[in-house]
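RECORD TYPE: protein structure
NAME: Peptidase C39-like domain-containing protein
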Amino acid sequence: MQKRLNVKGCSQYSTDVKEQYRPSACGPTTAYVMMNYLFGEQAVNKSINDFYDMLGGTKIGLFTWRFKRNMRRYLGPGWLVDNCTVEQAMAEIDAGRLVAVKFDKYFSLRFFTPALFAYHWVPLIGYDATNELTLFIHDNGGRNRESRVRSFQYKKEKNVLTFIRITPLQHT
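PREDICTED:
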């Protein structure tokens, strides 16, 4: 089974992002891409800089607990913002919602583990479970390149990954 959402990515190194924020704006950029995908750019009416300030970005990045707490505050009580498993992340993709993915060799204490990124937030945009599970992400760009879709094998990266879903709560 394969599913991939059509997502407009964004670079954390865009000239629209404050220069001092760029090296550590991957978390806010991920939130920005996710919110624009969910609600549309006109509805969100916030910049990556706004998300950086609102989420509590720092020079060393955005902590998971801050991402979750401040996205809950932003979205309100009708939304679940929490960690999830890779299976739950795939279900979110199936439901048409992006998932925030954090690569983190440092806080997972996997300093010497080879990883696609040492510390980086990205939006998960799809998966291919036909054979070995492959995940598709937008990588939020780099100093000299735009955001692009990338893929990786889940098995090779699973020890450094954290998935955060943003799901509307069902009220009866």
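COMMENT: The longest helix spans residues 26-39.
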